[in-house]
Design a protein that fits this description.
Bound molecules: 2,5-dioxopentanoic acid, magnesium ion
Strand content: 35-45%
Order of helices and strands: EEEHHEEEHHEEEEEEHHEHEEHEEE
Helix content: 10-25%
Length: 287
């Protein structure tokens, strides 16, 4: 079941259910004003199902009539790194003296976890993502994102883009926060898929296309099953010695890295699709 935050032409943000016949049902009209509360309930699928059964009485819109907002309200967004072999190899190649750090973390019990964004800074689908002016090597990172409630339970999944400056990250590992956290460096959306198990999610495909002046400039894909770590274990590490009263979102790392000569440019369009969720689309701007 797909749940989203959306707005129509300058109006307030509302909560919606996305139905298979490509419409959005406005559940704010039924009193649901916060995504977070739905995700907190012991049985979010049942409460969504109840809302769904009342859908005929609620306002409906075509997908094309709404603007999707990032599906986060006050959740912190975190990210895991070096969880796919492809990511480990790419980082070891881009960096002279940090190579062993990537090699070690790939095999270590403790994963690499880093803070990525405050909720209010996250771009939704159709909003812009940024490349830094002081970077000459920028890439998108298409990632499965776990939506976690305050108890650390995986209640849903969305699509994430962990925009990164590879030259800054490669120069010195201590520059990682600058390579990863800057204006418009995180996108999530278009909605949250509630219900699938980890076993089902591991069968999904993650595909990315980068379109430049109407042509495909890069295309790649991987499968969630290629991830080295267990998704529940990643969530468990994030919640160790830390609490998230509003829940959190955890990007699970990238398994697709464009070739080393490729860098994003302003006006590129990025499309990331995950087979069990949908497609996240963002245009690139320089920041
Ligand atoms: O260690 C650097 C970041 C790794 C990352 O973001 C990824 O593997 O997706
Ligand atoms: Mg990443």
């Amino acid at each position: 079941m797909k749940i989203c935050r959306f707005r129509q032409k300058g109006e307030e943000i509302r909560i919606g259910l996305v139905t298979d016949d490509s419409t959005v049902v406005d559940v704010t009209a039924a009193g649901v004003t916060r995504l977070f509360e739905l995700l907190e309930g012991e049985d979010s699928i049942r409460s969504l199902g109840e809302l769904f059964s009342r859908q005929k009485k609620l306002p409906r819109m075509q997908l094309s009539e709404v603007q999707f907002c990032a599906p986060v309200e006050r959740q912190e967004v975190w990210a895991a790194g070096v969880t796919y072999l492809r990511s480990k190899k790419a980082r070891m190649e881009e960096s002279n003296f940090s190579a062993t750090a990537y090699d070690r973390v790939y095999d270590a019990a403790r994963p690499e976890l880093f803070f990525k964004s405050l909720a209010e800074k996250v771009a939704g689908s159709s909003e812009v993502v940024g490349i830094r002016r002081d970077s000459r090597w920028s890439v998108p990172e298409p990632e499965l994102a776990l939506v976690l409630n305050s108890k650390g339970r995986i209640v849903g999944y969305t699509i994430g883009n962990d925009m990164s400056s590879r030259d800054i990250e490669g120069e010195n590992l201590l520059y990682l926060p600058q390579a990863k956290i800057y204006q418009h460096s995180c996108a999530l959306g278009p909605w949250i898929e509630i219900g699938p198990s980890e076993e089902q999610a591991r069968k999904w495909t993650i595909a990315i296309s980068i379109i430049r002046a109407g042509e495909i400039a890069f295309k790649g894909e991987t499968s969630v099953g290629q991830i080295k770590r267990n998704l529940t274990a990643l969530a468990e590490y994030l919640f160790r010695s830390q609490s998230f009263p509003q829940g959190a979102v955890l990007l699970t790392g990238t398994g697709v890295v464009p070739p080393d000569h490729f860098t994003l440019q302003a006006k590129d369009e990025i499309e990331i699709s995950i087979s069990g969720i949908g497609t996240l689309r963002n245009a690139v701007v320089e920041v």
